[in-house]
Amino acid sequence: MEMTNQTHEHQRNRGTGFRPCSVLLLCIALSTECRGQSNAWPLMTEAQARAVQRALPSYSGWRVATAEDHVGNREELKRMRDSQPGYNPYFTTTAAKGEEGPFALALVRDTTFLLLYFAILAQEYDTPVEVASAGWFREAFLALHGDTLVVASFRSDVLFEFVRNESTGRFVLINDSTYER
Questions:
Q1: Closest CA to 44 of 96, 5, 81
Q2: Rounded CA gap, 20 and 169, in Å?
Q3: Long-range pairs for 27-34 at CB < 8 Å and ≥24 separation?
């Protein structure tokens, strides 16, 4: 598939932060329609996007969840996206924008969401760790705080915290503050 100069200019002006060929490769890798919005991608570094690209073939039938998959409080989501351009409730990282650091995102297949965590080891992202899977995540947003992945619903005050066990690398759902890492 060949992109015209006009298409390249269009992609550059959409604020994705990626070179046009990178956007094309991401769209091909995700097997989704490339609409220039790139949803999760504006907040990702190129290394994070490559880590996702490497992982996706292991998740046949799954795709990266976007804000359009969210069915929670649309007004709150719009407010978040207005105040933070590129905000995606299904992507979170501990790093400052443009820097490398651990991140988590959701994949979606039909109405089921799967949360993945990507650790960074020696400047490369490791194979993702599956954290949890549920249909109600379609109403949630993610926040990563150190080694804790918080999943919260826009519709309630209930938080689910998954803490990464340092020795196993797996995540454990914690119900109280007595969990020892």
A1: 96
A2: 35
A3: 29/53, 29/56, 30/56, 30/63, 30/64, 31/63, 32/63, 32/64
CB 140 within 8 A of CB 91: no
Residues 155, 158, 175: CA angle, nearest 5 degrees = 160
Tokens of 122: 């020696």
Residue 13: how many CB atoms within 10 A of its CB? 9
- Whether residue 104 contacts residue 40, with contact meaning beta carbons closer than 8 Å, is answered with no
Question: Model confidence over 7-52: pLDDT tens digits?
Answer: 333 333 333 333 333 332 333 333 333 333 344 566 789 999 999 9
Helix pair 46-55, 20-30: axis angle to 10 deg: 20
